[in-house]
Amino acid sequence: MSLFQHQVVRRERLKSALWFIVGKAIDHEALELDVNVTLQFIGAVTEMVFGQIESVTKDIESFTRHANRGTISSDDVLFLARRNTALDEILRHFVAQKKLDRNNQKTVNEGEGRC
Description:
mainly alpha, 4 helices, 82% helix
């Protein structure tokens, strides 16, 4: 299988997995709201979400390349979210909490070797 064919297969698998997750979420909400949804609606939402994922991916990769890095960092994600103040606040809190947790874990690990 060529690299292109492999990428096409992988893309279709990702879309299938996304269809499943989006479908479950929509079915759950439809039951809560007592409404019916069609497969076409689920497909349209899946395509919209997939397109948004592709757009976000390209933007984050561009931020990473612009910073001359080969690895995406939390700063790239935060930069992407800067125009959505609610999302930016949530992500900044999440990143800060993760850094605090990581620092606390390092402190605990460093203290284990001492008597």
